[in-house]
Design brief:
Shape: elongated
Radius of gyration: 19 Å
Structural class: mainly alpha
Number of strands: 0
Strand content: under 5%
Number of helices: 11
Mean pLDDT: 91
Distance between the termini: 33 Å
Order of helices and strands: HHHHHHHHHHH
Low-confidence stretches: none
């Protein structure tokens, strides 16, 4: 791992543990055992580091959305993987979720990046649900309420870690499974009879 990547890795660890307000570039360089000048050679400021982390996070989320759900077999095998990978990424970048409102309010670039990511996820969600209708996993009428389903799903998935932390619960694999099941509950009423069978089999894998 090169120095730039180590700075990012160390910053993520410290931001997750202590929050961005409590951590300065000096804390990051001290944790790494490098000089502040060495850090500034790679990043101009703490905001620059946070933006780079946010871009890395967006790329990972974008990759998750590439999972295909074109057959019933795909649904059973890949849906859990999609949600599990999202929550695992959330676990790795938890400070972005816990401080999201504050960070995007302070930095218009981060806000713009968030808006783009939201649009990307919305597009992916529409494609995912459309595919589930095509393979008769979901009812056709669910296409009329895709935006409502996405909003409900978004609230659960995006803020699950906030809920967990506020309840003073460790954000571990058990909480991730709980979040996945809760997320699944949003689409359950929209499933066809075939979809319900596949859905129940999928839940058994958790």
């Amino acid at each position: 791992m090169n120095t730039k990547d180590k700075i990012i890795s160390t910053a993520i660890k410290l931001f997750n543990l202590h929050g961005t307000k409590s951590i300065s570039t000096n804390h990051i360089s001290k944790e790494m055992g490098i000089s502040p000048g060495n850090l500034y050679y790679h990043f101009r400021s703490k905001n620059d580091i946070i933006r780079t982390i946010a871009n890395k996070f967006s790329s990972e989320i974008g990759y998750v959305l590439q999972i295909q759900l074109n057959t019933i077999s795909d649904f059973s095998n890949n849906l859990t993987s999609l949600f599990n990978r999202f929550f695992k990424i959330q676990q790795s970048y938890q400070f972005l979720f816990l401080e999201g409102v504050h960070l995007t309010k302070q930095d218009p670039i981060l806000l713009n990046n968030y808006t783009k990511l939201r649009g990307l996820i919305k597009k992916g969600y529409h494609e995912l649900l459309s595919n589930l209708v095509k393979i008769k996993i979901m009812k056709k009428q669910s296409l009329h309420i895709i935006d409502d389903l996405l909003d409900a799903q978004w609230i659960i998935m995006w803020y699950w870690i906030n809920h967990t932390v506020l309840d003073r619960i460790t954000y571990d694999d058990f909480q991730i499974k709980k979040g996945i099941k809760l997320s699944f509950s949003i689409i359950k009423p929209q499933l066809t009879s075939v979809g319900k069978i596949a859905f129940d089999k999928t839940l058994q894998t958790l």
